[in-house]
Design brief:
- By secondary structure, the chain is α/β, with parallel strands linked by helices.
- It has helices at about 60-70, 105-115, 125-135, 155-160, 165-170, 180-195, 250-255, 260-270, 270-275, 285-290, 295-320, 330-335, 335-340, 385-395; strands at about 1-10, 15-20, 25-30, 40-45, 50-55, 85-90, 100-105, 140-145, 205-210, 210-220, 220-225, 325-330, 365, 375-380.
- The protein starts with a strand and ends with a helix.
- About 35% of the residues lie in helices and about 20% in strands.
- It binds adenosine-5'-diphosphate.
- Adenosine-5'-diphosphate binds near residues 282, 284, 329, 330 and 335.
Length: about 400
């Protein structure tokens, strides 16, 4: 069976067509600037990377562009739409409705829409992608895979905020957590490498990318995670502040004569590593600037490292021990010095790192130091494959 995995954003649509027999990616790509003009980036092994300018007024047209590319005689990989057995959709927010992936029906769509209030930038786009796909591929079964589902196992003491309880009851204000598909994928893979059931391992997974989150996984379940009600919480990120004193928000609003929404925008888009360094949100640019002597760039790197390291201590404590640490996503997979620094001076927790083994980028590797009780790994995340596997499992 071939499964199409779709990740719809507000003006973008990422896709992968995966052959489930071999788990090979037959084609992948990205529609950009939907609703503006439209660019399709499409790649296959045979054709390499291709770029087309295609007018894409909405997601339905973007999906048509994707299926046309997949069917194309020149750069396609299938000869008829019948070859696509199912579609797996990434959906950011499943609220408290979904603790696992589900086959999409009218009720599921209604619930995704209800959760839009909790993820106004993402869920409406995800839903648009689903509906456009239903139109383009009538009858093809579709599955929704939620970023929040894996974290639904958190106990109430971890997911509730100490604010009036009615806000949870009335408005569903609680910690949800995100990147669940990635945390789940890398934790499962780490357990395979260790050779023990995930249920017997206490693990911290660090998804460090443009958006970053850290999860404590005990008995195979997420018991706490750094992102919260929204993906703004937790560690410092590329442009997001992560954890700050909430009283700062009205204070900035008053000083800068801004609305709360405007401050929220600053915290989401102009803070984090970008806000501190003033250079970029991309850690490669920041590292380069720091090497060139830019002190604020170095400060951004130090602050990021500090904000991540705190979670290692925190989550080892709440789990009552630690067996494994896993690094993933753009920074986790590629930033050698950050990993080294994070795992240095951690002997008291039974953690050391092997600098030579740690000299690795974008590849699966064990980086555990000699005599280290806690094992550490770099595991490239593969959210698309996880979505495809869940889709296949649900459709039997
Ligand atoms: P997103 O959250 O958008 O999916 P990614 O997981 O792609 O983000 O991570 C983006 C971050 O990863 C950027 O800060 C970038 O600097 C960093 N990164 C990506 N590739 C490399 C690399 N080869 N070397 C160092 N850092 C990298």
């Amino acid at each position: 069976m071939k499964i199409l995995v779709l990740n719809a954003g507000s003006s973008s649509l990422k896709y992968q067509l995966i052959d489930m027999d071999t788990q090979a990616v037959l084609a992948k790509g990205l529609c950009e600037r939907i609703g503006i003009d439209g660019i399709l980036n499409h790649s296959t092994e045979a054709c390499g990377k291709l770029k087309f300018e295609i007018d894409m007024p909405d997601h339905a047209v973007a999906i048509k562009a994707v299926t046309d590319a997949l069917l194309s005689k020149e750069h396609g990989v299938i000869s008829s739409m019948g070859e696509i057995g199912a579609v797996g959709h990434r959906v950011v927010h499943g609220g408290e409705y979904f603790n696992s992936s589900v086959i999409i029906n009218e009720d599921v769509k209604k619930k995704i829409e209800e959760c839009s209030a909790l993820a106004p930038l993402h869920n409406p786009a995800n839903l648009t992608g689903i509906m456009a796909c239903e139109k383009a591929m009538p009858g093809v079964p579709m599955v929704a895979v939620f970023d929040t589902a894996f974290h639904q196992t958190m106990p109430s003491e971890a997911f509730l905020y100490p604010i009036p309880y009615e806000y949870y009851e009335n408005y569903k204000i609680r910690k949800y957590g995100f990147h669940g598909t990635s945390h789940y994928f890398v934790s499962k893979r780490a357990a395979e490498i260790i050779g023990k059931p995930l249920e017997e391992i206490k693990m911290i997974t660090l998804h460090l990318g443009n958006g970053s989150s850290i999860t404590a996984i005990k008995n195979g379940k997420s018991i706490d995670t750094s992102m919260g009600f929204t993906p703004l919480a937790g560690v410092m990120m590329g442009t997001r502040s992560g954890l700050i004193d909430p009283a700062i928000i009205p204070y900035i609003a008053e000083k800068e004569n801004m609305t709360v929404d405007e401050v929220n925008d600053i915290l989401n888009k102009k803070s984090g590593a970008l806000g501190i360094s003033g250079v970029s949100s991309d850690f490669r640019d920041i590292e380069e600037a720091a090497k060139g002597g830019n002190k604020r760039a170095q400060l951004a790197l130090d602050m990021f490292e500090y904000s991540v390291k705190r979670y290692i201590g925190l989550y080892a404590t709440v789990m009552g021990g630690l067996d494994a640490i896993v690094f993933t996503a753009g920074i986790g997979e590629n930033n050698i010095s950050l990993r080294e620094n994070l795992l240095t001076d951690m002997e008291f927790m039974g953690i050391t790192v092997d600098s030579e083994k740690n000299n690795v980028q974008g590849k699966e590797a064990e980086i555990t130091g000699a005599g280290s009780r806690v094992r550490s790994f770099v595991i490239p995340t593969n959210e698309e494959l996880t979505i495809a596997l869940d889709t296949q499992k649900l459709l039997g």
